[in-house]
Structure formats: structure tokens, C-alpha cells
Amino acid sequence: MKPGHTGWRHLVHSTRYSIKGMKAAWFHEAAFRQELVLFLLLLPLAGWLGDGPVEWILLLGSGLVVLAVELLNSAIESIVDRIGPEHHELSGRAKDLGSAAVMVSLLLAGLTWLLLLGQKLFG
């Protein structure tokens, strides 16, 4: 982005870069595609499962957290791969930590959905 871009110009350019990143994730990251499709499929269920706006945003928010963390993990992997293809302990650790972050976000989403589902079914 050019240094002179502020205000609306900055917003327009930032939005353009964000859309470019989403497209890159869709075309190059299988895990992101899987998680996005699952998120979209669960949207109607969130409407039924969530009793009120707070529960609804918990369900949707947990899914959006998964997508955001997956995007960050993909960014880490891209940077590490850009540095070089040879095996390095720190490169492997960075990728493993990114993967662990995705797993933690998936646990959060899973627990959120399971707890609200259990509350809906069993009171």
C-alpha cells in the first residue's frame, strides 16, 4: 500500500488485499476450504441451535475464529516455505505451532457447539 493512502483510500486498498488473501486461501489451502464449507453448512443449524443473539454469536464467532486462525497458520506456512525448502528445526517448530493454534481454535468451536447442543437437547 502506498504511504499516501489514508482514510477511504486506505480502506478500499485494505479490503482489496483482504479479498485477494481470501481467494488465495480458497485456491491454495485445502484445510481452509474444508473449514469454510463446514462453517457455511453449519450456519442454518446455528439459527436453530442458538437461543438468542448471544448464543448465536458464540456459535458463529467460534467458527470465524477457526477460519482466522487457519488463515494465520497458512500465512506462517507460506513465509516458512518462502525462506527455503530445507528442513530446519525452527521452521518445523513454527509450522507445528501454527497447526497447534488451529487445533486449539477447533477445540473451542467444538466445545461451544457441543455444549449449546447439549443444552438444547437435554436442558
From TrEMBL:
InterPro entries: DAGK (IPR000829), DAGK_prok (IPR033718), DAGK_sf (IPR036945)
Keywords: ATP-binding, Cell inner membrane, Cell membrane, Kinase, Lipid biosynthesis, Lipid metabolism, Magnesium, Membrane, Metal-binding, Nucleotide-binding, Phospholipid biosynthesis, Phospholipid metabolism, Transferase, Transmembrane, Transmembrane helix
Subcellular location field: Cell inner membrane
Enzyme category, top tier: transferase
PANTHER family the record matches: DIACYLGLYCEROL KINASE
PROSITE patterns named in the record: DAGK_PROKAR
Protein species of origin: Halomonas marinisediminis
Function: Catalyzes the ATP-dependent phosphorylation of sn-l,2-diacylglycerol (DAG) to phosphatidic acid. Involved in the recycling of diacylglycerol produced as a by-product during membrane-derived oligosaccharide (MDO) biosynthesis.
The protein's Enzyme Commission number: 2.7.1.107
Transmembrane segments: 30-50, 56-76, 97-116
UniProt protein name: Diacylglycerol kinase
Origin organism lineage: Bacteria, Pseudomonadati, Pseudomonadota, Gammaproteobacteria, Oceanospirillales
